[in-house]
Design brief:
- By secondary structure, this protein is of the alpha+beta class.
- The protein is built from eight helices and eight strands, in the order H-E-H-E-E-E-E-E-E-E-H-H-H-H-H-H.
- A hairpin with a 3-residue loop joins strand 6 and strand 7.
- Helix 5 crosses helix 8 and helix 7 crosses helix 8.
Length: about 230
């Protein structure tokens, strides 16, 4: 499953390609998504922003509508240029956003839904998210407190609990614990505050260290390469 840094880079790429542009076509293999896109009249609206929230991705349109996706294990977003007015077949595409010059396609994502602004603001999965390690307003005190509240849970699963701290997946969980010398099987309530603070800080450092373009994920020295 993609981790927080992957979703953040995806959002950055989509934002650069789509923000400020008018949607000329929207489609999906999911009837409910198509119906919702028509209710919110996505075609003709401008894409205002694309943002990451933990492992969730939100495409915001003028007027308040939001396309919410979660990639799960197999989902992905791809961009391609519009070629001669010929559209590619939908196949497994859960959402296709087309502008005058570029098409963004979300394939195989298990969660794809078009929401109103109020629905997005009250969405259970989004409201329950813990502090986003890559968010501009990340609050390390709140993150540590939420982890501490996991009490008798092992620290490995606790770090991946998106309602405690959002953005950490199995890769970062393993690396953070290894680099901090903490067993994944230790209960949260057996750790002192300093250790929990160190784990949160290290997770943030690792995630932020892998946000550059053309970087392969690493927890040591960064080197150019493909994701």
């Amino acid at each position: 499953m993609p981790e927080g840094d992957t979703i953040w880079r995806t959002a950055r790429t989509l934002h650069a390609a789509l923000a400020g542009k008018t949607v000329v076509a929207f489609d999906s293999v999911l009837p409910a998504v198509v119906a919702a896109s028509r209710r919110h009249t996505l075609v003709g609206r401008t894409v205002e922003a694309v943002e990451a929230r933990g492992k969730h991705l939100l495409v915001r349109f003028a007027g308040g509508a939001v396309l919410h996706t979660h990639q799960g294990m197999r989902g992905s977003w791809r961009l391609h240029r519009v070629a001669g007015g010929v559209r590619r077949p939908l196949s497994a595409a859960r959402a296709v956003i087309e502008t005058a010059d570029v098409v963004a396609t979300c394939s195989l994502a298990p969660v794809v839904e078009v929401l109103s602004a109020s629905q997005a603001a009250a969405h259970p999965a989004l409201v329950r998210l813990g502090p986003d390690l890559l968010g501009s307003g990340f609050d390390p005190v709140a993150a540590c407190r939420r982890l501490r509240e996991r009490g008798d849970l092992e620290i490995g699963p606790a770090l991946m609990d998106q309602t405690a701290v959002s953005g950490i997946g199995n890769v970062y969980k393993s690396e953070v614990l290894f680099l901090c010398g903490v067993s994944p099987f230790v209960r949260v309530n057996a750790l002192d505050d300093a250790t929990i603070e160190r784990l949160v800080a290290k997770a943030g450092d690792l995630l932020r260290g892998n946000l550059g373009p053309g970087l392969r994920r690493t927890t040591t020295a960064l080197a150019p390469g493909r994701l």
